[in-house]
Each structure stands twice: as C-alpha cells, then as structure tokens.
Amino acid sequence: MFVQSARIVEEHGQSPIDRLTFRGLEKNATTIRLAKMNLAVHGLEGDIQKAITYYEDPHKLVGKADFVMANPPFNVDEIDADKVKTDPRLPFGLPGVNKKGKVSNGNYVWISYFYSYLNEKGRAGFVMSSQASSAGGGEAKVRQNLVETGDVDVMVSIRSNFFYTRTVPCELWFLNRDRPEAHRDKVLMIDARNVYRKVTRKIYDFSPEQQQNLLAIVWLYRSETEKYLDLVSGYCRRTLDEGAGCFNTGGENGETSQPLPDFAAALNSLNDIIQPFLNTLADDALHAEVQKELTGALPVFHADVKVFKEALDEQETAWQQQKTTNGDLKQAIDRLATLAESSRDLIKQTDLLYKLALRLIETCEKECNARQSDVWVSKNVIRARKTANEARQLAV
Predict the structure, then answer these.
(1) Which of 37, 202, 249, 277 has the most CB atoms at less than 10 Å from its CB?
(2) Quick check: 254 pLDDT over 70?
(3) Buried b vs exposed e over 272-301: b needs ≥16 C-beta within 10 Å?
(4) Contact 2, 25 (CB under 8 A)
(5) Is the pTM of the predicted complex or chain greater than 0.85?
(6) DSSP 201-260
(7) Partners of 171 in the beta sheet?
(8) How far apart are CA 31 and CA 17, in angstroms?
C-alpha cells in the first residue's frame, strides 16, 4: 500500500519522498523486515514499528494522519475488552462484549481506530468484511454513530476471490473528515460485485479501465465533471490510436510494423509456398474444399481491412474538430462504436483465416502425402506458418 501510494503521487508529477511520510504497525518482525526491504527497493523509507494494534499506538497517531490505508483481519473475536474499553481510539465505544470478556467482533474496533487517527482533513480507505455493514447489536450502534458524523464518504461492494488468501466478498470503506456540507448527510454506495476481471480460476481483480470507471462514478458524485469528460475523451482518443496501430506501430529498436497488412502479407507468402504442391493435385482432391474456403475468405478480408482503414481515417478527421462537452462526446462514442465492431469482426476473420491455412497444410501433409513431394519444402512451410502466426497474434 505504501509503494502504491508513492506511485500515485509520482503519477501526479510530485515526489513521494517530499510529499509522504509512511508510518505502519505490524506484530510480526519478519513481515516488518520484508516491508522495509520492499520500501527500500523502491527508494522509500518508512517507520514501521512492532506492535499489536489492538492495544498499542506507538506512533501516537490519534488526530494526526492525513491518510489511513489498511486491510485488517476480519471478524476477530480475541480482543480483550478490559484492555481497550478506555482507549481514546474508540470514540464511539465498544461494539459489544461476549461472555469471555472479549470484544464480540473486532471489525468496528478497527474502523474506530482508523477514524480516530484522522486529522480534521484526513481521509481513510480500508478493506472490511461485508458483515460489518449489516451487523446488529452493539456494532449497529457504533455504525450509526459513525454515519451520523457525516464522515462516511463512499462504500464499494466487491465480489469474492479478490484476495490470494481469502475467498470472502468484502467492502471498501472511504472516510473523509473534510467533506463538503452538501454531502455530509449522504453516503455514495457502489455495487461493484459484477465488475471484475478473471486473473486465474480462483483470483479476480479490477482491470485499469474498471478502476477508472468506478472512480468516474465518484467524480460525478463530487461534481468533478471535467475529470469524467477527460476520461471519456481519453478513451475516444485511445480508440483512434489503437486503430491507427493496426496499420503502423512502433517495435523494438525503433522498427515499425503494420500488423494488419503484415498479417495479410504473411498469409499470401504462406500460400505462395504451398501453391506449387497444390498445382500438382487434381481439382477433386481432398484439399479442394478447404482451399476454396480460404481462397474465398481472403478477398473479403482484404476488402474489410480497406473499409476499416477508410472509416478510421474518416473518424480521425472528424476528431480534429471534436468538442468535449458531454453531448458531443456521446455522439463521438456512437460514431466510434462502429470501429470497435469492425475491429471485433476483423479479429474473427484473422483467426479464421489462420485456422483455414493450418487446415489446408494439415490436409496436404496427412491426406495428400505432401511430404513425399519434391515441391513441398517442410522447413519453408514451417517458417512461413510461424511468421503468419506471429503476425496474427500481433494483429489480434
């Protein structure tokens, strides 16, 4: 979290060393060493002290922090109530005590601590169990007192499997001690349980675009309309740049490539290499149907690439006069949607053409005994097929 915070500051053109002071608490000495090493690797320093946060505040942070970030343990039931009942970090009191003299659930102990650390303009963002937002009893009373401060800013519901070690769903809480008066009786609640990107079978996350789009909701809620319009405008500009990249893109060592034309050329080259063998076969040979399908699909692909390029040039010209009001950008998105649709169609065509070429090669080798022919040079076919596949991947 510290390293990511530093990156955000750098993205805003400022120095994290000058702007940020990191203070952390951790009960495990090994984890402290790892955290300090991670900071050092990124050119940062942090005062991370060994402490059990339930009972200790070695930084004496109450009322001092500009920002608090945390991912605390969920639903802990081992906090000694007698040790914390007079803690100044519990401005809303204990959330409940069980028969063993333990705090029934530590979620609101954590939340209270985070809140108490903030100065008069401080903000907090932390991960919390979904159970906390609907818990009853003493927790509900603490939650009511917290909400009535007017400092609960935003809550975001997240689906399960966003953690490497836990599968449970969670919520992101954002507190702000310096909210505008118009928002003090409101809480922005975002249901993002159906917003995710699948990383592995068991792990999900947000893509950068999904993060930006969720953030855009917050911008609009805060009347930061220009940020939202800049984001939409940036998406439109990126659409045009990505389209142009299909025809001319930078490569390694200053080289340039033309992904779509290069793929078409690679297919033609592959076809030229196998054509001498095809000329030796009868018209009714087993390869004929596949060859006919490939031969028929190629002109359609070339024509669609040409139409795509013309549409792209037309949209690029229109963008030179583009206004960035909400209504004008909406019209631009409607125009650019056709480019996105054409792009998806070209992906399907590109994959189909390559598969047809592979089928034709396989049919020649397995059904027509191509390897026995003097005009079938296997190493040239393999090389051309590899070149076509690399071109296909880049184009897609």
Answers:
(1) 277
(2) no
(3) ebbeebbeebeeeeebeebbeebeebbeeb
(4) no
(5) no
(6) SS-EE--HHHHHHHHHHHHHHTT-HHHHHHHHHHHHHHHHHHHHHTT-EE-GGG-EE-HH
(7) 128, 157
(8) 22
Task: Give mean pLDDT, residues 269-282.
Answer: 92
Q: How far apart are alpha carbons 300 and 52 in whole angstroms?
A: 68
Are the C-beta atoms of 51 and 25 separated by less than 8 Å? yes
Q: What is the pLDDT of residues 151-190, one digit of tens each?
A: 999 999 999 999 877 788 899 999 999 999 999 999 999 9
Q: Please, which contacts does 151-155 make with residues 24 or more away whose CB atoms are closer than 8 Å?
A: 151/115, 151/118, 151/175, 151/176, 151/177, 151/179, 152/187, 153/123, 153/179, 153/183, 153/187, 153/188, 154/187, 154/188, 154/189, 154/190, 154/218, 154/221, 155/187, 155/188, 155/189, 155/190
Structure token digits, residue 310: 């013309």
Domains identified in the chain and CATH numbers: 51-223 (3.40.50.150), 241-395 (1.20.120)
Work out the angle at residue 241's Cα, subtended by the Cα atoms of residues 351 and 345, and round it to the nearest 5 degrees.
25
Place of tokens 């922005």: 188
State both tokens at 349.
């065509």
| 201-219 confidence digits (pLDDT tens) | 889 999 999 999 999 999 9
How far, in Å, CA of 364 to CA of 287, rounded?
6
Q: What are phi and psi of 76, to 5 degrees?
A: -75, 140
